[in-house]
Design brief:
324 residues, mainly alpha, 77% helix
Amino acid sequence: MFMVPAARTTVPSKLLTAVMVAVLSGALVAIQGKFNGAFSAAGGGPLLAGWVSYLGTIAAVIVVFACRGKLRTTLRRIRTESSWWWFAVGLGGIPIVISMSWGIPLVGIAVSSVCSIAGQTLTGLVLDRYGVGLPHPIRLSRMRLAAAVVALCGLGLAIVAGGAGASSPLVMVGVGAAVFFSGIALALQNAGNGSVVARTGDALLATLTSSVGGGIVMTLITLAAWLMGAFDVRALGVAEWWMYLGGPVGAAITFTASWSVRRLGVFRLTLAVVTGQMVTALLVDAFSGTPVGPVTVISAAVMVCATALVVLDPDAQSAVSHEP
């Protein structure tokens, strides 16, 4: 008599697949941050680390297209079909690459990750409400608001737990603010890539155009900084080869996020990414010797709870398309 209808408690298999892809994307974000952060700390600096990462992303996507035998077709599509904003979308990824490369060596990957998540979460609520990058808008339901509150509680716990890892409270606040606003920019990029996928049907093409757009601007910024003597080009010769892997990992991140956002929406994508990102971040910090306290572990668990809340939201399930 009081049973809840099955339609409101069962999560569609296609949705679960999209959530798992988003979880993978989150794990890759944490891994990329460690690669770029290591490159930066080895003497390259955050700007050079970001530039190398962008070049690696573009190269990785081009190699994939070439291996699929679709490079010429793809270049022809870009020449005949693309609009300027396909490339401008890529600008949203620049702040996160630089801020994470700068912030991770100072406060650890877990705290840096959760600050970016807060920016993405709040922006995702607004973008989904107006249907940016989605087939239909997703109303601001009580369950989505509850998920946002829970996620912000997790953010607060992570910042408190990570305070001891920063050189000073001022550094902690500065890194947190920088990564928070870079998370907002990243949410806008994810929504923009979702719009490109809607027009092209190809998440890899969206990955290429956004990476090229961001890479061009990143190259100009890096060139200007070099001309002003901000870094020595000899810093490109960092000791460990694996520090250059941030770019290929970035290609996988953009592709998985572009594919998932049409099925999840920006807000739910962000919280699903948290599951992979926070758990992986904690493991990376633990194995690399960065102190991980119990409060940080609790903050990750709180983020996972927020993800579960929004994934089970029936309003969002019915509003987002179930593309093949």
